[in-house]
Structures are given as structure tokens and as C-alpha cells.
Amino acid sequence: MKNLSPFCTCTNLECPLHPTKHEKGCAPCIANNLKRKEIPNCMFHKLENSESRTRDSYQDFANLVLENE
Predict the structure, then answer these.
(1) pTM of the model as a whole
(2) Burial class (CB within 10 angstroms; exposed 0-12, middle 13-18, buried 19+) of 19
(3) d(Cα 25, Cα 42) in Å, to the nearest integer?
(4) β-pair partners for 38
């Protein structure tokens, strides 16, 4: 797990973009999410009730942030 960033909270080890699967760190995952106009999964982990979401869109993230205020 030497490629795992110290702040990474991603638990989806099956994902081909997970930092443990290649030598590029978090960049491929973040690039993929930006292309899809989504927030990386790991960012949701800091919010309560994040497991209740159905998508990773900017709007879903914003809604969770507001719910956690």
C-alpha cells in the first residue's frame, strides 16, 4: 500500500483506480471523477449518513454537507 495517500479513506479495494493498483496515487481516480462531474468517494466518508447516498454528484455532496451543518 505504498501508493496510498496518507489522507485517503477509500475502502473500495476492488476499484482499478484505487492507489494500491498502480503507481499514480489518487490522480486517476480524481481525474475520472472530475470528468464525470462527481466528487471522489473518499470525500464523502467525512460526512455523516454518506452511505445513504445513491450517487456521487456535486449536488449529492452539497446536500450531505448541508445536512451535516
Answers:
(1) 0.76
(2) buried
(3) 13
(4) 57
> Could you please report the per-residue DSSP string of 1-68?
-TTS-TT-----TT-TTSGGGSSSTTHHHHHHHHHTTB--HHHHTTSTTGGG-S--BHHHHHHHHHHT
Which residues, in sequence order, are CB contacts of 48 under 8 Å at separation 6+? 67, 68
- 21, 15 in Cβ contact below 8 A? yes
Query: Using one digit for the tens of pLDDT, what is the confidence trace for 5-64?
Result: 777 788 888 999 998 888 888 899 999 999 999 999 888 988 999 988 889 999 999 999
